[in-house]
């Protein structure tokens, strides 16, 4: 048999879907389907097939539609009917009700199932269960493409951050009266050649008053920066004791130096990037199991979750040789065969034992785990949340930005915070990094239920707002007033938090008991800890 095409049309002859398996044009298929309508209307036979001069139509009516198999006239009618039945079964898999809108919504899945049944016009020897298995298989190329797209989005976000900081820095320099000079002008000014320095000074002597003032301010800042190491070296040589020159004066160079040092502390160009603080290594009484998870999320300004990802690992530490022959029994609530979680075991772990029984044990039962008190990751997992899925987002955030009514050039930024019900632990040291470098910022007390404070302001991280702790089930708001040129300059806002003493994991992965691999009825004593921290958590 040779299947030319399979189509779905309405009773009135309107084509909805069609898949061609041979080299045939769309116009020709449309012509054949229009001929079918006339043949069925004039047919008085009880059979579910009709023929014309060139092709045979094998069809099946359902509700207000026909599913039609177009073959050549020499095709085996028995095989055609069997193929048509398989097409109908695969279509019923994706349709709960035969509605035209639903057919269009599931068109891609329906046509994909048709492609599994027919290859180059010939039927494959497949059952419906095999077709569903093939359609549900994951694509390695698709995963690679998703990783590439995610990396592109991350690079674009980093570039936006860099440009926002650069624009903010230039605007701050403009307000402070510092001229914006190019690379050649910077080299020209910083040269040690006295002729070039004199030429630079003579040029500004003929310049406008504003340019002269900017030049003098720049020279004064260079002079103050050069005098700081001299004063420090004098203080170090005297050991901080005895008479100090200018010790009783509070103005002049001493005051300027103190002011500059204070400015550098709050606006250091080499400020470290914000990171979640790592806890001290927990005490191990024999066997210690650590469940470590890292969450990433991209949240829109309206609070919608655009993407989310959770990565975790189960680590084992053993410091007693007598406890090294162990097996870890995962909580029965954890579905090890859940395709939403991509579980991966260590190469020395019996993977089939884990998938079938939820037990983490070595392939060779005669061997033991290392007992050098070093962490060994025996299980890893990864889960990617769908769009608008907040199950992997422990802290949901909505942002509201509006121009300040009382202050010109200021914006009121309100962050609505809501703890996810699925996470049963508090979040510690929550930080919001707003990519704007300005000292003109304040926290509004009327919307500060969580005691938010401004932790630091620097050129690298911008404004860092800190909340010491957010309890379980909290719903609150934090409001700030910030100086900025544009609303977009306030984004993206990076969010950092962690919990190094959690009672449970965000994924639900936990351990019910640890038993001996030599005697599974013999339970072993163990301790467990759970941690959660952010990796790339931002409001775009």
From TrEMBL:
Top-level division of the source organism's lineage: Eukaryota
Gene3D superfamilies recorded: 3.30.450.60, Mu homology domain, subdomain B
Keywords: Cytoplasm, Cytoplasmic vesicle, ER-Golgi transport, Golgi apparatus, Membrane, Protein transport, Transport
Keyword Mitochondrion: no
Record's compositionally biased regions (Basic and acidic residues): 158-176
GO cellular component terms attached to this protein's record: COPI vesicle coat; Golgi membrane
Subunit structure, interactors included: Oligomeric complex that consists of at least the alpha, beta, beta', gamma, delta, epsilon and zeta subunits.
Protein name listed in UniProt: Coatomer subunit delta
Species for this entry: Lachancea dasiensis
Organism ancestry: Eukaryota, Fungi, Dikarya, Ascomycota, Saccharomycotina
